[in-house]
Amino acid sequence: MLGGVCAGIADRYGVDPLLPRVGLVVITIGSSGIAALGYLLAWAVIPVAGEAPARRRGRARGRRGSWRIAFGVALLSLSLLLVFRELGVWWSDKLVWPLTLACFGVALLWSLSRPEPEEADEAEAPEPAAEPGERARRMSRAGFGISLVVAAALISLWANGVLDAAGDAALAALVVTLAIALISAPLWWGLLRRLSAERAARIRSQERAELGAHLHDSVLQTLAVMQRRVDDPAEVAKLARRQERELRSWLGGSPPARPSERLADALRSAAEEVEETHGALVDAVVVGDAPLDERLGALVAATREALTNAAKFAAEGGPVRLYAEIEEGTARVYVDDRGPGFDPERVPADRRGLRESIIGRMGRHGGTAEVRSAPGSGTEIELSMEAAE
Amino acid sequence: MSAATPSVVIVDDHRIFRTGVKAELGELVEVLGEAETVEDAVREIAEREPDVVLLDVHMPGGGGVEVIGQVAKQRPQQRFLALSVSDDPQDVIAIVRAGARGYVTKTITGEELADAVRRVRDGDAVFSPRLAGFVLDAFAGDLPAEEVDPELDQLTPREREVLRQIARGYMYKEIAHRLSISVKTVEAHVSSVLRKLQLSSRHELSRWAVSRRLVD
What we know:
The structure holds 2 protein chains of 2 kinds.
Chain A: H1 5-13, H2 18-30, H3 34-48, H4 52-61, H5 65-86, H6 93-113, H7 117-120, H8 132-159, H9 169-228, H10 233-252, H11 263-278, E1 282-287, H12 294-314, E2 320-327, E3 330-337, H13 352-364, E4 368-373, E5 379-386
Parallel strand pairs in A: 1-2
Antiparallel strand pairs in A: 2-3, 3-5, 4-5
Helix pairs in contact in A: 1-2, 2-3, 5-6, 6-8, 6-9, 8-9, 9-10, 11-12, 12-13
Chain B: E1 7-11, H1 15-25, E2 30-35, H2 38-48, E3 52-55, H3 63-74, E4 79-84, H4 89-98, E5 102-105, H5 110-121, E6 126-127, H6 129-138, H7 150-153, H8 157-167, H9 172-179, H10 183-199, H11 208-215
Parallel strand pairs in B: 1-2, 1-3, 3-4, 4-5, 5-6
Helix pairs in contact in B: 1-5, 2-3, 4-10, 6-8, 8-10, 9-10
């Protein structure tokens, strides 16, 4: 009946709204009004959470509720003050009535300052032009609220005899300042909330624009190119794979690869490079990681050479496989293929790739390279290098 | 290993993908049904009683993990094989820990997939090279001795070696040959790794990827 908190609770847990209401009254009386404060807090805070269903309920109830809410709050505060007086606290009539009046006015202003559902949904649907009648009603209600608070301030001044006594000007100023603060607080509050809602909407639209731009530059471009290359399946597969990899790393939100600093990233990027240059599939699995130094740089270069050889001579045997593990101070790289294989003893002397770029390079940097292959049984190359972990 | 054609239910929220899988499996596997939501999947599996459920990791309404959870209550013996485009280690480890007996990527060929289905039907585990890499990574590094349950939290050197061979892309038969052991022994090692992966309380297991990225 008041802020709809009880109805909300009842709605949420599927019980009759009467139950929590009766409960609230009992608790209020029992706890000498402290629960009532809790109620006010809940009323102020729940809509702030911006729950969609709450918003929808707010729309259904409309602005007509603000009178009832304000009236309810006034009654509530009145009962609160009376309870306090009953308990022997010093409230006199001079204070109780102006305070009740002020509460009525403030509640009216606050209920007006709560964001309207239309405003909250602004980002999704353009707001229909606010009806002038609604605005006028709001203004009159706000005016009434303000005058109530002012009246309450004046009454309290008069009742306490402050108006006659010029010497109590300080107290008068205090009360007036308080009244102004009470009047303007909801306005500030509403303004702040509107600002934050606008900011959220702006961030959302920025994100959407960024996503659109990214998809346009990447996926749409690739799709366009692929349509023009339909007669070249290998090229299409390559494009699709590159795009897939790119989109994956973008979606995954993983930190950007640092192939110049980390061994794992360097090996993966070598695999991607070979895949792109030679059009063969390279499946890479890397376990562990280490910072890249000169020796590991040589390991990466040797790996790239081994992958290139496999891609050139063994691509028809299925994907080239790269497996690397960095553990206990040693980096081991395996490059396996199911290609035609060869006899390592009989590699022509002018084929510098294997002898120089792989075996020689690994040896010069203190690592080892082993090549196992036989005609008809694929090739495995195992590279090993000490790594500073 | 029984020779009969294994039967499956395909659970995936993309119709085109289900159609593609069905076409690729052809005669090799009998497709009893399809489902694209968690509820459909649970009903369909209970009704058709397939040997194996091919399960997508990401689906609206909780995904593959949810399907496994709900089906396991009625059919604890039901076998699942995760089939996914996701190669996020956390997703993959999560679905295997939920109870899937293996994980393969969607780029797998029809023949390989049929083979994987047969293996899962026969109670074996199916590890793709990528999953083997994830597992090696998850079990890498030493824990303080007092926190380790050696039964569950550590791989034996032999299990490690088998996983390494899988990560290098070798088939079970090739691995058996290369390590001079029988295919049955390879399968036993993989099943044992699967058990450890599902039961180990190694705390980081599900979150290891994150920590691993932060550590360096």
